[in-house]
Predict the structure.
Amino acid sequence: MTHVVCEPCNNCKYTDCVAVCPVECFHEDEFILYIDPDECIDCGLCIPECPVEAIFADSDVPEKWEHYTELNAEKAPDLPVITEQKDPLPTAPPK
């Protein structure tokens, strides 16, 4: 099992999840984060840290966002790893 970043992260990019991740599975795109399923160890620490509830276990991804499972797997390996917390995008909803 792995975890998946879904739609609520788009135009948001709170990185609280990255700060608690014990491995380097988060990757950063311009407007969203992705999780590399080959690096994720399924610890679940990131899920409660996301203030917009954008991260799900792959078995719990809502049907409307199921395509994000494949999108994370495709995109993450080609993007830079992010390991430290950064400021969210200006378009992020308030915590």
